[in-house]
Amino acid sequence: MTPQQIELIRRSHALIAPQAERAGTLFYHHLFTLAPALQPLFIGDIRQQSARLMQMIGAAVGLLDRPQELLPVLAHLGARHAGYGVQARDYQVVGVALLETLQEALDAAFDSETRAAWTAMYALVSTTMIAAAHAESAPQTA
Ligand code: HEM
């Protein structure tokens, strides 16, 4: 990711952070509308889950310029997700729900460059998580 993209993400994230609860609710609304079959995977309290998701996004935004710290956090998160029953293909619809949420929450501030920056960030986050989940489930060769 370029320094300009990181700056665009930080600026737009700062606009959402004060309305994190609303953004979290919007996100799960979009996700379960797009993919109702994913709803039963969420067995815990959805408000708490929403708060954790927003917290994790905030942490990732803060660490975008320190990949050596961010990548292991994402790898652990991805490995935990394999345990929640999440499949690699589920990441696509979660990305769509995230972009829809950002569009709704940011409105005019979500211009094409900001959208491209978040798309790049989601690609980084999801590929790192998926790779770690895959490594976890791969048979040991040693
Ligand atoms: C790629 C970005 C994602 C991020 C940043 C993220 C973040 C989180 C966080 C912070 C938690 C709290 C528990 C923990 O830390 O282990 C969590 C739990 C969970 N996530 Fe994700 N997640 C992502 C993708 C996904 C995808 C693609 C799915 C597919 C459906 C998913 C489904 C779940 C489920 C089922 C739980 C457990 C909920 C429960 O126990 O009720 N997540 N996620």
Summarize this entry quickly.
With 142 residues, this protein is mostly helical. It is 75% helix and 0% strand.
Per-chain topology:
Elements: H1 3-16, H2 20-34, H3 46-63, H4 67-83, H5 90-106, H6 112-137
Helix pairs in contact: 1-6, 2-3, 2-5, 4-6, 5-6
The site of protoporphyrin IX containing FE (HEM) has 21 residues, from helix 3, helix 4, helix 5 and helix 6.
* The CATH homologous superfamily: Globins
Total strand segments: 0
- Mean model confidence by pLDDT: 96
User: What is the name of the CATH class?
Assistant: Mainly Alpha
Spatial separation of the terminal alpha carbons: 35 Å
Write the element-wise H/E pattern from the N-terminal end onward. Answer: HHHHHH
The molecules bound to the chains, other than polymers, are: protoporphyrin IX containing FE
Helix content: over 70%
Structural class: mainly alpha
Tell the overall outline: globular
Low-confidence stretches: none
The CATH topology turns out to be Globin-like
At CATH's second level, what is the architecture? Orthogonal Bundle
How can the largest sheet be summarized?
Answer: none
- The helix count comes to 6
**Strand content bin:** under 5%
